[in-house]
Amino acid sequence: MDVGTISLVLVFGLIILLAIGMPLGFASAVLALAVMIMKFEPELIFNPLSFGEGMLTGRPGTGALYILTQKIFDLLTEYVLISVPLFIFMAALLERSGIAKEMYNALDFWLSRVRGGIAIVTSLMAVIMAAMSGIIGGEVVLLGLIALPQMLRLGYNQNLAIGTICASGSLGTMIPPSIVLIIYGLITETSIKALFTGAFVPGFMLASFIILYIVIRTQLRPEDAPLPTPQPGDPTGVQKLGMFAAFLSILLAGVSALLLVRVGFLTLTGQNAALGENVDPIALGMPHHIPWLVISFVLGLALIFVVFGRERSKLGWAHGKGLVPPFTVIGVVLGSIYGGITGITEAAGMGAMAVFIIALFRGEASVALVWDSLMRTLRSTGTIIWVTVGAAALSGAYTLAGGPRYIADLIVGADMPTMLVLLTMMLILLFMGAFMDWVGIVLLIIPVFLPIVQRLPIEEIGFVGQLSPQHVSIWFGVLFCMNMQVSFLSPPFGPAAFYLKSVAPPHISLTDIFRGFLPFIGVQILALAVLLIWPSIVTVLL
Predict the structure, then answer these.
(1) Taking the chain, what is the end-to-end CA distance rounded to the nearest angstrom?
(2) Mainly resides where (predicted)?
(3) Could you count the other beta carbons within 10 Å of the beta carbon of residue 249?
């Protein structure tokens, strides 16, 4: 059977199976089997009794079937895949412990007198949580539990509150460590560390767009974000600024002290002695760093006790200490990756251990906490693995049937301008994202689209800046993630809506939630357009 017919059967078959409610993993597996039969043993369709006589069934475990099973086996035995349940476990621990709530209270204190401050705090909290774990569902649920009641109590516009929570809560798709980027890297054999680095600027750009939209909207419509009533004894703006500076001074002294202890340990054990004075492979860990760290430590102490005073510093620490655990986790995860200490998988394990140790010191660690987090991890990971197996089987079968080459020749042969090809892909991804989970899309669509993008003229990609050929797969991965940002809010099956609905007050309907999304979908599409127009923004840090 020709590849064109197989492609049509595949598209309509997937739509029908999903429409009747079959899970994506099983639907993909069924269609993978159908594709293999149509391509390599079509006589089975018309004569099932011929089983055992054709290319597929005559010698099971060989030929195309062997290649397909080997592809699935190779994917499931990738070491980096272990990081997925570890990041999910870390997010579950964060959701169950009080770390996130204390972080919200700290941010709320510093920004409570700013117009739209609670919404801005919610977005900042989402960015920090995304940099800790990158799990979208947990972030939306947690923000819905903590921030939504607060914004509604203060009289915030309901649509603004809903949109802020869901748009900000889905930032884990873009901001490293993103599980979407991890799966994309596994499927396309792209460096996950490079994908993380490339996604930094676009991820924080999108977060900035969301915060900028909140600021502009609340300035134009003050009634959407009323300021809280001042309470007697509340510090003024100048007083808050002094307290925050005192808090930063405490952090300066504390971090300097820890680095001094680290340098002392490395020096006593001789780990940095043989490296030489002019070589610096250990960041801030060489003997010649000691004087600078001592100066930094003394400066921090001078600011605390002389400039700001003990009382102000004590108040600053009391209101800011909730930010220390989250940034500690971020430092452990991302610092170990970019510091060259560990890989992605080990960093995920270290992050989960860091969250547990923090919960232990806070008195929140318990058997119930760990058990509930493990069960959530098992359920989420099981879903991802089953979808991964089914989608990997389907994409592998379609590749063996020649599908990607057929689609590539079809699109390239249509002689469309490069930007029109990319816009067509974005529209297809947006459409698929409204009906399918991102795991299925990255496993089914990306193996078809990426070879096409790699065949496009590199000089015609974007209008500002220039991509290097070795960065095309990284740029397209970040572009795909930005597209998936939109899919989390896209009706009728935007998952962020259902996550929020599970914890929202009864009077907020799904229709209300989707209505609140609309302006933020526009913000996300604007960020997607920036990546299409200026692709080299992805390579700024590479």
Answers:
(1) 45
(2) membrane
(3) 23
Name the nearest CA neighbour of 132 among 347, 363, 346, 340.
Answer: 347
Decide: 225 and 156 in contact? Cβ < 8 Å: yes
Question: Residue 402 is which amino acid?
Answer: G
> What does the alpha-carbon distance between residue 202 and residue 397 come to, in Å, rounded to a whole number?
34
Residue 285: exposed, middle, or buried by beta-carbon count in 10 A (0-12, 13-18, 19+)?
middle
Nearest one of 90, 206, 93, 225 to 153, comparing CA atoms:
225
Amino acid letter, 182: I
Could you tell me where the beta strands, DSSP code E, fall in 80-142? Answer: none
Q: Which two tokens stand for residue 528?
A: 């997607």
For 436-473, write each residue's pLDDT tens digit. Answer: 777 778 877 888 888 888 888 888 888 887 888 889 99
Alpha-carbon gap, residue 126 to 134, rounded angstroms? 10
Q: Which of 335, 338, 316, 306 is nearest to 251 (CA)?
A: 316
Whether 421 and 450 have beta carbons less than 8 Å apart is answered as no
- Length of the chain (residues): 542
Which parts of 241-363 are beta strand (E)?
A: none
| CA of residue 116 relative to chain centroid, distance | 25
CA nearest neighbour of 195 among 537, 535, 471: 471
Tens digit of each residue's pLDDT (9 = 90 or more) over 63-107: 677 777 887 888 788 787 788 888 888 878 877 777 878 888 888
Rounded CA-CA distance 204/244 in Å is 23
Which helix (H) or strand (E) covers residue 476, if one does?
helix 472-487
Q: Is the peptide bond before 177 cis (omega within 30 degrees of 0)?
A: yes
Which of 377, 470, 449, 397 shows the shortest CA–CA distance to 179? 377
